Every structure is written in C-alpha cells, then in structure tokens.
Amino acid sequence: xxxxxxxxxxxxxxxxxxxxxxxxxxxxxxxxxxxxxxxxxxxxxxxxxxxxxxxxxxxxxxxxxxxxxxxxxxxxxxxxxxxxxxxxxxxxxxxxxxxxxxxxxxxxxxxxxxxxxxxxxxxxxxxxxxxxxxxxxxxxxxxxxxxxxxxxxxxxxxxxxxxxxxxxxxxxxxxxxxxxxxxxxxxxxxxxxxxxxxxxxxxxxxxxxxxxxxxxxxxxxxxxxxxxxxxxxxxxxxxxxxxxxxxxxxxxxxxxxxxxxxxxxxxxxxxxxxxxxxxxxxxxxxxxxx
Amino acid sequence: xxxxxxxxxxxxxxxxxxxxxxxxxxxxxxxxxxxxxxxxxxxxxxxxxxxxxxxxxxxxxxxxxxxxxxxxxxxxxxxxxxxxxxxxxxxxxxxxxxxxxxxxxxxxxxxxxxxxxxxxxxxxxxxxxxxxxxxxxxxxxxxxxxxxxxxxxxxxxxxxxxxxxxxxxxxxxxxxxxxxxxxxxxxxxxxxxxxxxxxxxxxxxxxxxxxxxxxxxxxxxxxxxxxxxxxxxxxxxxxxxxxxxxxxxxxxxxxxxxxxxxxxxxxxxxxxxxxxxxxxxxxxxxxxxxxxxxxxxxxxxxxxxxxxxxxxxxxxxxxxxxxxxxxxxxxxxxxxxxxxxxxxxxxxxxxxxxxxxxxxxxxxxxxxxxxxxxxxxxxxxxxxxxxxxxxxxxxxxxxxxxxxxxxxxxxxxxxxxxxxxxxxxxxxxxxxxxxxxxxxxxxxxxxxxxxxxxxxxxxxxxxxxxxxxxxxxxxxxxxxxxxxxxxxxxxxxxxxxxxxxxxxxxxxxxxxxxxxxxxxxxxxxxxxxxxxxxxxxxxxxxxxxxxxxxxxxxxxxxxxxxxxxxxxxxxxxxxxxxxxxxxxxxxxxxxxxxxxxxxxxxxxxxxxxxxxxxxxxxxxxxxxxxxxxxxxxxxxxxxxxxxxxxxxxxxxxxxxxxxxxxxxxxxxxxxxxxxxxxxxxxxxxxxxxxxxxxxx
Lengths: 290, 696
Hints:
- The complex is a heterodimer.
- Chain A contains six helices and 13 strands.
- Chain A is α+β, with helices and mostly antiparallel strands.
- In chain B, strand 2 (51-69) and strand 3 (74-91) form a beta hairpin.
C-alpha cells in the first residue's frame, strides 16, 4: 500500500514537473516572440524644453508596446513596474547629477471598444504593467525640491530595466529617445515669457504636490507682474478651491473669464475654466443648501 | 556556297558535341544574321558652278535560316530582310528625294540566298521624287533607287567567332552565324502573380535554351525602363535603418537613393557570374539553363527585365519571356497587365487599386462631397511609414502601410503618447483612416512643412512613363501638440490640414479641471479639435460666452453675480447656449459643446446686446464696476449639466437634436437641432480649394 502511494506521489510529482517545464518553455517562447516594450519620455510635455533656472521639470515616462497576440508583463509585487524605470543622462555613463522623486503612482490607461464600435477609456493602477499593444502606462518624476538643475544642456533618457527573474516575464533593457532640456542662467529670468513660464510651472507643480498655499503665493506673484495673465488667475483659483476658499476661487475664475472674453479670434470657449467654475459653484450651492 | 553548307554542318555538330549530351536532331538549322549599311554625304558645286548637296543612308538587316539534313543537303527555309533608305540630292536647279522602308520575307530558296524573282526585286525599289526648280539643265548625282539583297560569305571567310565583316567605300557589311535556338524565360506563375514590390523582396526567374544548347546568359534592366523614385515609400527616404530592417545590410553604403528601384543584388550573384552590376548580370560559363533573382528596393518599384543568350558563335539574341500565358520580349516587374504601375497581385486583394495611378478619388467618408485625400492611387500603393510605437531617433520601429485608395487617409504626428492613444477613436468617429506618424515621416526633419508625400513632391516627379504618380500640390498631415492654452481645452483652425499649423490640446489644465473624468474629456476634446482640423464646423453659432449682464430678473441664481445696472437689479452670468447654437444637435457628437451654464429654450427671447455698466460688490464689500454686454430676458434656464454627457460618439450625419436637444422636451430642449450635420463637412483633401468658413 505504501509503495503504491509512493509511486503515485512520484508520478504526480513528475507530471507537475513536466507541466511546469512545458508552461515555462511556452512562456519563454512568448516573451521571446513579443515585440519589445517601448519607452518614451517627455519633459514638461515636450521633447525639447528651454527654461530659466528654477523652472520645475516634470519627466513623464510612458511605457507601451507588446502585441495583442503576444502580451508581455512588466513588474511584480516585489518590484512594481515604476521601480523598473529610471532616468539617466543620454550623453554620459554617469548617473543624473540631481535626484528625482515620483509625482504619484504609475497610471495605466487604454481605450476599450464599446458595443457601438467607439471607444471609452479604462484606467488602472497596479504593480504589473500589461503590454499588449493597447495599454499605455505613465509615470511622472520631478526634480527633488532640494536639488537644482544647473544651467546648461541636459539630454536625459528613460530606461526600462527588468531583471531576468521571473523569466516568464519580459526582461532586458530598452531606452527612450533622449529629451533635451536647456536651462538658462538665472539672468534669463528677466525675460517676461520665461519668468511667467517658471512661475506657472512652479504653481502647477505646487498644486500637484498639495502645497496649495505656496501655489497660491506663486500665482499671486505672477499676477503682480502680469495682472492680465489668465493662467495666473486660473492657478490662483485652483489653489483657492483646493483650500476650500470657494468664494475667492469663483472670483479668480470670473476674473480669468473676463480676461478671456477680451481675447480676439478664439474659436473655442474657455471650457477648462467653465469646468472649474462649475465645481466651485456646485460646492457653494451645496453649502448654501446646508 | 557549297563550302558554307558543309561548314555549317560541321559547325553545328561541333556545337552540339561541346554541349550536354542531347539527341542529334534529324535536321539542323543555322541562322545567318547580319547588317549592311551604306551612308554617304557630301556637297560641292555642279557643272554650272552652283552649290549642291548629296546624302544617302541605307540600312539593311537580314536573317536567313539554313536547314541541313543528315545527308548534308541544305536549303534556305526563311529569308527575312528589312530595309530603310533615305536620300536627298539637291542643287539650285533640281532636287531628288528618296525615302522608303520595308520588311520582306523572301521565303525558301535552294541556291544563294540573294537570288530573288523579278517580282521580289520590286520590293527593294526605293521610292524617289524629282523636282526641277529652273528651266536650265544641270547634272546632279543620282541617288540609289534600289536596295541590294545581301548575300552570305563562304564558311572559310568567317572568323573564329563565326562572324565576318567588310567595308568597301561607303558600304559596311557584317554577318554572324549561329545555330538556331530559342531561349525562354520562365517564372512560377503563382510567385509572379503574387509579387508586390517591397524593399528586399525577391523575384526568381529561370531561363533555358531550346534545344538545350549551352549559351551565355545576360540579364539586364535598362536605365530608362526601371523606376528611380526618390526614397523607398511615399514618405520615406533611405536611412541606415532601411537596410537593416529589410535584410539588406550588405548594400548599405553601396546602394543610393538615385539608384534603380529594381536591382541585381550582388549577394545573389557570386559563383558562375561575372562581377555583378546592379543593372546587369552575365554568366561566366555557357549553360543550358540558369536562374536569377531580381530584388526590389522600393515599395513602388516597377521595371522591365530583359534577358539575352549568346552561343559561342553569333551575337546576343533576345530571350523569349513566357509569363502570364503570353510570349513577350521582356518581363514586367511586377505583373501589371493594365499598365497602371500597381502590382496586379495587390489589385487582386484590394480592387480599389485598379485604375488610373494618378487618380485621387477616395470616397469614404463622403464628408463635404469632395473626393480624395490629396494622395494619388500610386502614392497610396507605394505606401507610408508610420510610427511603430515611439518616435525614436531612427526609424527602426517604423511600420510600412499601404493605404486604401477607397478610404480617405489622414496622417497625424504627435510626440505625446497620451494624445496618440486617442487617434483610434477619432478614426472611428470620422470614418477616416488615421495614421500616427513621427516628425520624420512628413517633409523631412523639420516637420514644419508637414508634407506627407514628400518624396515625389520634392523631386517634382509628377509622372513616370506617361502615367501620373503624384499631383500638382502636396498633401499635408496634422501636428497634434500638448500646449498650455489658458482657457480653452483645445484649439485648431478649420481644415483641411494645409490650413492647420497645429492642433493644440491643454492636457495639464484638463487634468486639473476634470479630475477622474479627465480621460473621457481628453478623448472628446482631442476628437473635437481634430474634427475642426479636417473641416468640421460647430453645429451652429450664436452662443453667448459671457460674461454678460442679464436684466429683468428678480433674483440671481447660484453661479451668477448679483448687481445693478442703472439702479435696477441685474445678474452677471456666462455661458448661455442658444437654440441651434454650438450645443445643439446629436447628444453624442464630439463637436457639440457640453455642460454650459444657461440655455435659452425654444421660443425664448434674449434682447440685446447693449453695453452697460454693471455695478456689484465684491467679496470684501467693495463696489466694483464693469462695462459688459447687457441683455434682457426672462426665459433663461439652468443648463442640465449632469445629463449632458461628453460626446464620445461619431460626428453626426443627422442634424436632428437628441438627448437634451430633443424637440419632444419642449422648453427643456436645450439647444435644438444643429444647423447642419457636421459629418458633412469632413474634408482632408488639400488640393481642391478651401471649404466655406465656419460661421461663429
């Protein structure tokens, strides 16, 4: 009886081992046959940026690729996919001379075909990035507050490096095309456009990181210099709305709309301000009802 | 001539003995082919001292076939002669002009081949005219009025290569002798019928002699018979990645853009071939059959392959091409029976490729009724490089796509993957074929010109071999960018693409404005703005963006600012949608404005505007004044924003309002029917003038 049990156990073990080996071989083949992942990086939404010193830099790294028939997976629970991405100088082997920090978790989105034939977006967050030709994963990094990017030309690329284990997942290294950032010396800040750009980007980043008071101060600094800046009013409104100062936010948005109405040749309305104003008005109305 | 008979027999036996073992035929045939030219020209003065000129040019080609039986008896079984003659002899007093040509088959003969009958002799008379200009008489040199039938020389007079030539006065005679054989080029009918040119794609052909005589073979693609289209696709020039992607690394640095589009790849011609030229290859040893390979270097490559065979005696003679059920002098590559420069293999799969290569008649979507997308059928056949995922520094990941001549195509470049991800939805919403490209895929490196068919356009190559391949003006693509706009979500001019510098989307602002709904609005806004870029207008006009002042109201609703105008109560409001304005029409249409603050119901009145001074207290209690447009109305209604879902449908083909704009809603009908169905504005063709502007 014991012999029989032992033989059965051995047989089952052998079958499991053979099945595992077969599964592993197929997984490895699938990984080998799949198109490599594609990595793209943009700095402040563009491929080439010229900015004055102190302008926040936000690097958006996109991860896509793979194929519908040969989907890949990148990242594990122990090493989520954003941890496999890094920024590096494109023209030296040295690490980046300034540290970067993430601006939130990695985001994943895709368009899903609807019953009517159109598309609707699907978004997700997770440790594993699926690459099947449809998913687009993004991860944002910014220069750490304490760090400064020195004036000069900086070519930066993003790289995805996945370790060989687990082997049934994609492993290897792919790098993006570099983005080029030219940081001008502080004296360039005298230029109105560059100065405004720095303050707009700064306020925007402060909003994103939850530094609402600082964002408001920066927006108001810009308003002192450029009272006609629609962007400054909108940023101020956003900071005020985030600080639950809705009545002031409404005033800021109304000021932006008044300035916008004086612009000539605008084919489209200021619907981005309208959407903000709607949220604030609804909150105010709700508060009034209460 | 007896010696020639014996000689030819010996010659044939020797020839057959040197080749592969084949059964001796009952009879053998020898071909004597040659030419006679007689040219002369001079001038001087005639007997009266007047100037005169004289010139004649006579050319004769002949091909005599001599058949010899086993007993050594020979006879001529065919004697073909063709001649052309011109001549002029002119003085001040008279002129003689002769001109004629003829092809003659003299038929069989048993004696000398130049023996002809009296009737046949007349076939060699050169028609002449004579004209006198004066009554006095002078002599001019008479032109020859007859062509002599060429004879053949004795076998012993032939040189080692079985040829003979002589020159006597103005007359040159040459003849060469070879056994009569036929060389036939054959090709696998399935391979030939399915061959569609693409870089690195190879077409195999084989040639053999009948009877199986060992000969030298030469394959040639003449310079004027093979295309040399700039680049290798409608929007792609040669670069290092081209060679790697198509397995042609060995040609990198050797093959240039101005080289022919069909070549003999040196890698295919090593042993047994003379050092290969890309336009001509030749065997080094006599063989009874040989195979060769033609390599395409362009997605639109088109050309002709000719082959020649040469026995050890005689010259090069053309090979008969046996393909597609016919005998021809040459092989058209690819198979193109209708001569439209487009491979029949593709026409079989996609009938829209049949027809004039210069036509631009894409019919779908119908749009504003202007057909085409600015690209000829040939350009669409030659195809385009599009992004294969990301726009890296080189074109490694690019993909090639032949576009349909039946569906209008639009090319969009964006560096922002998030914007690129919305393009499939725009394609579905319009019915256009939308192709994501990189900056390098339109008008070279700068991208400012945005020409998507630069290769033929820049070279000014509108025709090839009499067929139109590209139109008079270029077609442009769109540049979709992420940009801060300070108010609107997006911005674009009205298309067609030629008129649209950039389509701008304010991603950063939208992300903050819409929060969790960001992606839905991103798709809607990008589709909306790209819609403008292909000619689509809003559903109507007349909306009031504001801020404006409304008088005649008893109480200012939430979202408005209470104040006074001339001491009477008034409200400052904004975003008023009117009937048949921009918010009208089909609910799901992406061009429809959504979620405004107010609407004017059917039958409602809004009098104005008149500039007024609006006085109000701000949050701090301070009195502020603003000069604003003022209106009078008691009909304005609150807009139902929650019911006004973002339009993720198709551009509407029907102007009737649905959803919030449904007529059956009565006074709750927010904006009514559209003024026109917006899908009826779509135009991507840059070459047919400008569409009427959008009223705003």
